[in-house]
């Protein structure tokens, strides 16, 4: 299995691409703040998933990278909320993005709680 085959990876890259497309419509004054931040955090989830998968031989590093993913995903939710509260996205889009992010979070947490299902050997 490649890291690209992970459902969490696929869902997180879909979310990051959705955010990229949506954020193209944000005001120009947000380019170096909200737009940049939400793009970076959403992309970081995906990148850290790839890194976590490569760290499978090292259970503690695998878990650490996945907790980084979870933290970046939470940050993405904050930026999405700012976009909504600033009226850059409507409530339906806000809920859609939040739901996607929550699904990614559940998949990441499943990986954290079940590392052996992803090729991580017991650390005992």
Characterization of the model:
73% of the residues lie in helices and 0% in strands. The protein starts with 6 loop residues before the first helix and ends in an 11-residue tail after the last helix. It is mainly α and 124 residues long. It contains four helices and no strands. Helix 1 packs antiparallel against helix 2, helix 1 packs antiparallel against helix 4 and helix 3 runs antiparallel to helix 4 (91-113).
Write the layout of secondary structure elements.
Layout: H1 7-23, H2 31-54, H3 59-85, H4 91-113
Helix pairs in contact: 1-2, 1-4, 2-3, 3-4
Briefly summarize what is shown:
It contains 4 helices and no strands.
Strand pairing plus helix content: what structural class? Answer: mainly alpha
The succession of helices and strands, N to C, reads HHHH
Number of strands: 0
Strand content: under 5%
Q: What helical percentage do the residues reach?
A: over 70%
Evaluate the radius of gyration.
Answer: 15 Å
Ranges where pLDDT stays below 50 over 5 or more residues in a row are none
Oligomer: single chain
Overall shape: elongated
Rounded average pLDDT: 96
Largest sheet geometry: none
Q: Whole-Å distance between the termini?
A: 24 Å
Number of helices: 4
Task: Name a few traits of the molecule.
124 residues; elongated; mainly alpha; 4 helices; 73% helix
